[in-house]
Amino acid sequence: MDKYVKISRKFIAPFILALFLLSACTAGTKEEYLVIDYPTLEKTTASTISSGTEVWTNTPTKTPQEFFATSTALPHIGLACKKPSEDYSRIDINGYQLNQRTFEMLQLAQTLYDGIIDITGDAITQGSYTSAVEASFGTHAGGGVVDLSVMAPGTYTILYEDIDPLIKALRSAGFAAWYRDLDELYDGSPSHIHAVAIGDRELSTAAREQLAGQFGYFWGYNGLPTTDKKPIRDPHGGPVLCDWMIEKGYPNKTATPPPGETAP
Known about the structure:
Layout: H1 12-25, E1 42-45, E2 54-57, H2 64-67, E3 90-93, E4 96-99, H3 100-113, E5 124-126, E6 145-148, H4 160-172, E7 175-180, E8 192-197, H5 205-212, H6 243-247
Antiparallel strand pairs: 1-2, 3-4, 5-6, 6-8, 7-8
Helix pairs in contact: 3-4
């Protein structure tokens, strides 16, 4: 952890105060969590990913309460970073296949978001275990990945004001999540949120790359490969890092081996 996040002395006192407030907020529960936001990023070079790759890092400056300060989820902040189950039984929701773990994470995100977009039902536009959409380049081929509409129910009106709170809720529920705008992936591609369940043991290789690969979430990027091999910065401010993610080996877990090594 120290290799990736360095806390300067001027942040120690506020950090201790934040921990005290968190303990009061979550009294009576066994859930422990740490949410890290990256509002201002500085460029470094990390040879552990690939030679010459630019990586953006910074120190944690926000508590979970501050992270949700402009959203509707503040009353439910004690649920943030709840450790997901390991239930991989498959279910059908809105005509799409997910595993139970992913669905439970969506239910938590729905509670944190507390808005009108139903991400546990009608808003699901692409599920897991499918290669039906070529533009997804294999990210949905395994478990843990879902696309979500950001339109008002029953209309084609994009709820732009809901996108940021929904991204925050999904990330605090354990997803790497990004908004994909109209035409961003290809001409005519719809606006939606693309979400990858962190730690899902059935993720496809492409989905794992979106977490910790060269263009990945944990390095402050948007998860999309580029033709010039230059990663694009995360437009939503950087990753949320929970204790259970650290236990699973993030953020220093990569989907592919370092240069010069071969996969097992």
